[in-house]
Each structure stands twice: as C-alpha cells, then as structure tokens.
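User: Hello, can you help with two protein structures?

Assistant: Certainly.
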Amino acid sequence: MAAPALSPVEKIKAASRRLRGTIVESLAESATGALREDDQQLIKFHGTYQQDDRDLREERRLAKLEPAYSFMIRTRLPGGVCTPAQWLVLDGLAGRYGNGTLRLTSRQAFQLHGVIKRELKETIAAMNAALIDSIAACGDVNRNVLASANAPESPAHAEAQVWAERLSEHLLPRTRAYHEIWLDGEKVAGGEEVEPIYGATYLPRKFKAAIAVPPINDVDVFAHDLGFIAIVEDGRLAGFNLTVGGGLGTTHGDAATWPRLADLAGFLTPEQLLPVAEAVVTTQRDFGDRGERKHARLKYTIADRDLDWFKAEIEHRTGFALQAARPFAFTSSGDRYGWSEGHDGRWQLALHIESGRVVDRGNRRLRTGVAHIAGIHRGDFRLTPNQNLIIARVEPGDRARIEALVETYGLDDFRAARPIRREALACVAMPTCPLAMAEAERYLPAVTSALDQLMEEHGLGGEPILFRISGCPNGCSRPYLAEIALVGKAPGRYNLHLGGDRKGLRLNQLYRENLDEREFLDTLSPLFAAWAGERRTGEEFGDFLHRSGLLAATILAGSA
C-alpha cells in the first residue's frame, strides 16, 4: 500500500536543510519586501511571520505597488518572565524598528509588529544580545511554554516556572540554522546535524504546552496539546497530572475539524516530566497526519486512535507507567488584579493591558509608563496568558514609587474597568493577520461597551462574564472556552458561541452563525433576561445556560 501523499509544507521542510532553505538569499533580495514563498514557511520556525497591511492592500494594488510587507517577531519566553533590562531593549526595538507598540500575547510572549525585511536580521540580533530569542516561537515544533504567571506566590509556583524553562529548553530544535542566519554563527561543518527529538521534518503541525498551578487555570491547560497540572501536597510539589490532546483551532464549515479539550492521562513525578514530554512529542512526530494539515494536531491523533493506545505508547517509550491522576480543583482562569504579597515578602502588581497592546494612546501612556517602571524596578516582569502584565518581586520599599508611576501613566484602569472588559481576550486580527476574516483587537473596546450596556439594561451591570473574540476560527484568543465568544466569519460578521465556563474546563457551543452586531446583541438579550430572572445565587452565565436547558449538557474536562 502506497504511503499517503505529503502536504506541501512537509516537502518544504524536507528540502530545507534543517530549516535553512534560501532565507539568506531571500533577505538579500532588495527588489521586494517579501521573502520567497518556501522561506515564508521556514521563517516561522525562527519566530517570525511575513505579513502585510491589509488596510493598504487595495490602495497599493491600484497604484501598482506590491503589498506593504512587514514582519512580526515573536519571542520565546517560558512562563512569560523577563527582566526590566530586557523589557527596555524590546521597548527600544519597538520604537526603532517596529510600529511603536509591544504586544503581550496569550502565550506569554512578546510580539513586535511592523519590522521591515532589511531590518529583520538586526532586530533579531539585538533581541538575542539581550538574551531573548525567537527560536521555535512559531512553526511545527513545541512553541512557547506557558506557566502560571504567579510564580512569586508560593514555592510550588516558583518550581512550576523552573520546569517550564526546562521543558522549553529540552524541546528546542537543535539545528544551528537560527544562529547561522540571524547571529552570523559558524556554519556546521562535516556531518549532517541530528534532531534527536524532532527528526528530519519536525512535527506534523504546531505543538503547545502549558503548566498550571491550581486553583488558578490562567494557562487554560486543557486547551493544549500537552499539559501539566501541579499537584501540591503538604506544601510541596508532589508531581503533575498529565493532560494530552487539547487544541482549539477549527475551520468554518468543516465537520472534520473541531476544538477539543485535553484528556486527563495520569500522574507523574517531577523527575518524569521531561521524559514524558519527549515521549508525547515523538509519538506525535511518528503518528501525526503529515498529509492533511487540518488534521495534523495531536488532538486528532488521539481522537483517531484513542487515549488508551496513546498512554500505552507513552509508557512504552518512557519505560515506566503513569500513576492514577490525583485530585485537583480550579476556581478560575482569570488574573487577579492589584497588589498581592508573595511567599518571600515581596509584592506583585497585576495590571490590565487591553488586548495586550502596550501603546501610548491619549491619557493612557502605557508604553512610556512601563518603561519608566522598568528603569527603577529591581524584580522582574511576568506576562500573563490573559495578555496582562505583572510587575513581580517588588521590594516593599519600591511599592510607593511604582504605584505613583502606574497612576501617572494610566496603568491603573483595572480599578475602574468593567469586569467584561477586564477579562476579555482578543487576537490581533486586522490589519496584519493574513487569516483574519473580521476585526478582533480593534473592535474589542466597542463590542465590550455594547455588551456591558446590554447587561445594564437587564440589571446585570458589573457582573463578571468571560468574553473572547477571534478574527478567524483558529482560536488564538482561546474563544471556545469563553462564556460568550465571537468568532470572525466575514467583515463585521461573527459566529456566536455560548456556554463555556470561567475555569477553562468546558467548551462552549456554536449558537448562531454569521451575525452582525445588532443581530448578536438581539440574540443575547433574551438570554440575559433569563439569567437575570432565573439564576441561582452566584450562578455564572455559562453554568446557567446549561442548567436551564438553553444549551445541551456538555462534559467538563477532567470529569469521569
């Protein structure tokens, strides 16, 4: 029986000479702001995407100009931790080479937007000089590893951060292509490089990992290919519950694609984390679908073969059996704003950064304000999986000075912002994402205001509710876990999903398709009325929709 045909991307990877391709030659071509087509795939493994300004496409087409190409660079930053000095370097690069903003992503990484081709290498080299790289921030490899953003809270949180860093390093590609191309490293001489984990063509598709520390599920651990839930017993980290096979990307109208919550697979000790992670990755390497990229994520490998088969394969590769999963409980998935004291007597301050966009706009001069804080801060910064920023490990004597800067530069809006706005997530979408079908980040302020007004009309003003919006069905803002989500279908039109929960344990459901703003507000209005009139004390919107029968029952992640 003939082997199934490989997808075009698989052929590009196979011919790439370990991710080198012709990137060097593409960068040298001055007649265009773009890279060669195959190289546009390969640079993702180096942490950058080619994009163009879609707002200008038609204007430039009429002027017979090529699109306004630029590049987005994404960092690899396990657990989202960076020093004040690193923040200042990235801030400077955003002003010198980028579009004047820093974006904090839902994967606890930075994105620099608007870097043009001739300045791409210099920008990446400057990041590396500050000990921040972009290796494997994108592409068919393990991407930035998420970890609970509250590492100063307890010793267990701090241990989880250490394991996130170890996991990220362990699953890095070993090719020297990144160092050769961007850092002028010496070319590999002699024999062929070896990729002991990934092999010659890496993974069939992207791969995402996260470490959660209950009771906060800020990483949305069940949305990941690979997850570890920290189990703390008698004040120490006893080990981790393993989750496998989560993933949220889907395609409109394609029943063969769907969002999926990860399965709870068992318990392992801390020392077993790396071998188990490697076994999960290599199993997906060997059995994932390399013919159809829409079917290439680990969730489909497990759905096709079943969890028992997958666990047996992991245990065969590691040489030990997983233990039974241990009890855990999540209470929320959001960030806790304001000041809190850590286990070491130092403090942290969680700030709300709408859509993760650090920018000076009007009276809210966020970028300038954080840069001033970085100039005096002696701890570190933590990017949260909810696109927010934590000023962490603040010395008690520095609190007053930092608080004054927060107030001066408008970084304190978390104190006045309505709950629906504070908890919302949005992907970048227009104008730079080539996959976006509708607005997300730019629409977020207006749509949250409209939803808040509708809630006011039903006596629900100020009630917490988890809302997320995505410009396309790929789900970068993790919309399929929200109580209310809008997923872009066309300019100004969205699919409405309802019924997720606030703990990251339940997928929502497609409720109505292809709605404009008036239509989805009209659809929500009677549901809000029912919630206001029939809910039990403290009952959240997603839970009410299921208990009332307005949505069909669904299974929570981790339940029997």
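That covers the first. Now for the second protein you mentioned:
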Amino acid sequence: MLSDIEIAQSTKLRAIGDVARELGLTEDEIEHYGKYKAKVSLDVFDRLKDRPNGKLIYTTAITATPAGEGKTCTAVGLTQALGKLGKNTVVCVREPSLGPTFGIKGGAAGGGYSQVLPMDDINLHFTGDIHAVSTAHNLLAAMLDNHIHQGNDLNINIHRVVWRRVMDMNERQLRSIVCGLGGRANGTPRESGFDISVASEIMAVLCLASDMQDLKARLGRLVVAYTRDGQPVTAGDLKAVGAMAVLLKDAIKPNLVQTVEGQPAFVHGGPFANIAHGNNSVISTQMALKLSDYVVTEGGFAADLGAEKFFDIVHRFTGLTPDVAVLVASIRALNMHGGVPKAKVAETNLDALEKGCANLDKHVENLKKFGLPIVVAINRFPTDSPEELELVKKHCDALGVRSALSDVVARGGEGGIELAKEVLEALDKDDNTFKPIYDPEMPIREKIETLAKEIYGAEGVVYTPSADKEIARLTKLGFDKMPICVAKTQHSLTDDPDMKGAPTGWTLTVRDVRVSAGAGFLVILTGDIMTMPGLPKRPAAEGVDIDEDGTIVGLF
C-alpha cells in the first residue's frame, strides 16, 4: 500500500469551488486560498438560520497507544461511507499543530484512503490560523510587559503575571525562562515560559466563540496577571482586545477542504485534548449542521479527554448534543493495554487481547454514563487475525453495544459501509438520554473528584499545597462556578502514562489550577502533564524534505 502522503499526492482533487457549490454554499460565501482550500463566511448563518440542524455523530477512541487507534481515519472514512450510501455528510476535524507534525506523531489528517486533503498543506501552514492565534497571544504578552515597563498604572504584581508566550513547535528549552534581562531598557526581569500555541487560551476562545462579538467578549475576559492586592487583570484592562480581534478576523472563519473521495470537510481549530479542550471550532460544527444532514466530528485522544470535554464544556456553552458516539478501537492498541510490547502487537495473543478489552469496557461504561447510543468501530489492520476480530465483536455483544469492522484506511468509504449502516441504525432505533456528568455549580473539588472517580476510575484525589491555595483563591474571586478542563496524560486513564488498561485503586494528583476566564473554564493540571511538549530523540522532522520539483516527502 502507498504511504499516506503518496496517496494524498496521487489523488485528483476537485476544485474547492465545486465542493462548496455541492455543499450548498454560494460563490460570495467562500474566500479561495488557492485551488483546493477556502474560508467560509459567517454570513452563511443568516441565510440558513431557519434550516433544521443535521445529526451529530461524535467520534472518539479508547486510550491512545503507540500502536495506533485510528480515530481521525475512522471519522473521515465514516463520512465517505455515508456518502456512498447517498447521505449528505460533512466531516469536521481539528487543524494539526506543527509541534506533533515535526515531533513524534507526524501528520494528523487521517491516513491511507481516509484522509482530508490537501494533506501537506493541512499539516503545515494551512491557512495561517495557528499563526494568527500565536501572534494575537504574543501581542497580548508584549502589551502586558510594556504596560509594566511604562509605569504599571494597573499596579500589576510582576510575580503574579500568568500570561506566558506561545509558539507552534515542541520546544522544551523554553518551558521555563527568565525574561527582561539586560538592564531597564530591556524590560522588567521576571520568570516566565512558553506553551505550545494550541494550548493558548486564545485557541480555546477561537474554538468556543459563536461569532466575532462573542470572540471579542471572551478575549476581553482573558486573565493575564493579578494586582498587588490580588485582583485579576484582563486583556480588556490592557485595551488589547481590538487589536487581537483584528489578527483573528480571518482565523474565525472555517476552512473548507475535501476528503480523498471529494466530500466536504471543515478543518478548523486545533486545541490538544490532553492540555486543552480538544475539539474543533463550534462555528465549523454549527455551520456543517446547517449545511448537511449528517456531521461527523471527532475529539482529541480518548473518550476520557476530548469526548468528556465536548460533553461537559462545549455542550454547556453551545447546546450542541451528539446523537451517537462512535468509539474507535484497534486490535493492536487493545493488545498493548493487555501488556503486549509495541514490537509484538501484530502477533495473535488472545489472552492479552481479552485483558486489554478492560480499557474498551471502561470507555463504553463512561459513554453510557452520558446517556449516548454507542457504536464500537473496530479499526482493522492487515495483521489482525479472524480470531482476534471475532473476540472483540463478541466482547461488544456481551457489553450490549453495537460494533462494526472498519477497513477505511485500506479501502476508503467502501471499507466503512458496515460501520455507516450500524451508525444509521443506532440513530434510528437507540435511545439518546444525553446529559453532562456534573453540575458546574458544584465546588471545584467536587467537580474534579466526580471526573476522577466516575470517568478515570480513581479511588480519590490529592492536591499539592499550591493547588489547594489556588482553589481557595479562585473560589474567593468567583471563578468556581465554571466547568473544568483537566490536563492529563493521553496515554492512560490515570495520571501516570505507564499505567495501561483500566487501573483501579490509584489516586489522581492535582498539581495546579488555572483560570481560563475567556474560554470559560478552569484548567486542572494533573500528574506531570506539560503545556509545552519536547521533541523525541529522533524527531519526525528528520525525515521530511522537498524534492527539486517541489514535492514534499516524508510528511507522514
């Protein structure tokens, strides 16, 4: 089989104007970014405000492993399969960050014959949205430090500046820095650091905003520092909102591209689900729901991360409610959860596979707690044996959930027909009693402990002294009635990346709590989670190059 990028580069793309017209967009509603990409005007909402929404199919997965689960592939392939069944369908996914693209993961536009295209553009600079977020974020940082340098009229405590800088690259060297050295002309010396751009609160704000006015209101609430008497200082106080909004004026518009089979795809927004809320923009999902009968979207990493954050955060702000959840699993990943090393995941080991199904069980249990119909998509790899596939199918039957084999990577939409039919039947016949799992009015600790025990399977929660102090301070300031966004390793249900399966009897450690007042949630930092990743020993960047004829090679 060809590599992902070879398949992408050998696919004959449709002109984006044709894709837009087929979706029901007018020429005046799209802004071309070359032949195969376009921004879509928010004026679409005015024209289609009376049109009923389509059905929302939410794609999530079991806990991530190096063996691969295939969530984005499944979301794209399911969209293509629904198209083959004559359904009007759009897929909505997030924009890849350059950090993972050149780091350990590589590209993130799907794979095989189940991709969004043009894959090389999407995985690189695309339409500049992440650059816009980075620039708006760093403009605010510059205005904050300039305010302190120019007399500090807001009485900011330089030891309580909480707005760091960002860049869209994995760079451990910049996690903790001292800035402002070199004398008074170079600013005020203080400790700071960098986060990766997709962890910026501005990325969360962009993805949660409903329109430009809502975006500006959220930007104005961004907390950047605290005064000497402990009061929050916001971007609005620094008069930075207008300039930031100008930088984001194009980034707020959804990006329209296409799948390998020429179906419309919105790729917009890129928050990580392990350190942010992990879902594509609300605007793109809402627009897709107005333009089509079925919308397939996905959340980052497993159901305890991206899916939980959609259900408990995105839903609360927007009312967006999934009609069905597709839970992606692979034999290889389940083998790893059963204790098999990565080098041996392709070998048949039914005992390990059955043990690894404990992770699948926990995610099914969690999705049932939210009241959603569930379809397990078994993402097929060439090395899967019939015995392994049959074991997982029977296991799903015993759990009382629907399941279907998915072969979309090798066969595109045709390989997802069984899954698509199962999803359509679930939409037609299964009850949906969706509800979030906690009340945001609950105290901060109670919300954290609800997720820890109900979703992660922890026995309890411990708090560091600094986390205890922050919870008390944020409660006193009135920030305690917000939903919570837990920053946690994606490699385990626990806060320890080495604990596979579905561990019990463990304790979640809360290291710190930060307010994201613009986004509207509290960020709960657990375990050793980092908001600025580092590059691995052999970064994916080492294999990326461009030929004399301009063809990119090695990009996933």
